[in-house]
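COMPLEX REQUEST
Ligand: 2-acetamido-2-deoxy-beta-D-glucopyranose
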Amino acid sequence: MSTITIASLLFVLLTTTSAAIKTVPSDIAALKAIKSAINPKTIPSFTCLYSWDFTSDPCSPPHVTHFLCGLSCSGNRVTQLTLDPAGYKGTLSPLVSKLTELITIDLSENQFSGPIPSSIFFLPNLETLILGSNSFSGSIPPAITNLKKIQALDMSHNSLSGPLPKSLTPLTELTRLDLSFNKFTGSIPHLPKNLLELAIKANSLSGYLQKQSFSESGQLEVVELSQNSLTGAIPGWFFLKPSLQQVNFANNAFTGLEVPKPINSNLIALDIGYNKLTGYVPVNFTTYPMLASLTLSHNKLRGRIPWEYSKKSTLTRLFLDGNYLIGLPPKDFFTGKTSLSGSLGDNCLKMCPVSSELCLKSQKPLSICQQAYRGKLKPKS
Ligand SMILES: *[C@@H]1O[C@H](CO)[C@@H](O)[C@H](O)[C@H]1NC(C)=O
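STATUS: Structure written out below.
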């Protein structure tokens, strides 16, 4: 065959296949509705949405001038709606739910406002829903549990509010949930069984850590709940979850801590700084085999630093500053055998050597320490 015949054959093939694809009318109607719910002044010429020109077919290749980006199709159906972070301003049309073959929605880093249309929660094939860094408001309706195939859900950095749904257990495929930086109130939902990462940082969650919330989630590796108003004691069963690797409870109102010896633990990093913890520095943390980073800064902990901490070879970061710890810090912290960083400052310790980075921040004035121990602390003789 000559090159010319091959070329013309290819041409015929290409044109016939592209002609064969005609996006289903309801998908086209939904895409039109999505575009028209966005303020055209916020659609500059370099953006994906600008190239959405409905004089051509959205799913038909080649996409040389029209529908350059922002969506993908499989055959004649739209399967991905992935807008560029162009700062689009507007609402999300409820007609998005007509795109019933959608697997992925990513509208992150734009300025969508108003409620998340609840019709979105009836998309039967949705696996990824990323609405982070927008201005969505309103609450998350219970209908969210219809997203049976959802694996990743990111609604972080919006203005969402209200209590979270009581239970997310029907979302059996969900592995990543990020609701951080919103205004959610109430308690932590009953979490689904395959969840690996939970992030609800910087909200207004309150109440105790309830065993029921975590009873099914045996795979949880990352728990990020800092900057909320959680209270009560952090219970021992929590630390006994062997899957946990990174836990952040900083900036809450926890008052206590139960730390059992683990049977099996993968905990690497734990931050409970800036809470209201009372009691002693738990010696049992030194029995967590992987623990590398521990932060208990700015609480109301008392007593001595258990010497076991200076023998714990996995530990590379230790922040105990801003408590009322007394006595001599374990001297093996300062022998240079370990490369421990962190801080023991702003406590009531004796002879914390300023040659060590750990002691750079000075100790509390004696009067404050005496007051904390109601005069039971004898001045240095
Ligand atoms: C340390 O762990 C053991 C075993 O889980 C427990 O009985 C004990 O109370 C814990 N110690 C402290 C001080 O919490």
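REMARKS: The helical segments are 3-20, 25-36, 211-214, 236-239, 366-372. The longest strand covers residues 77-82.
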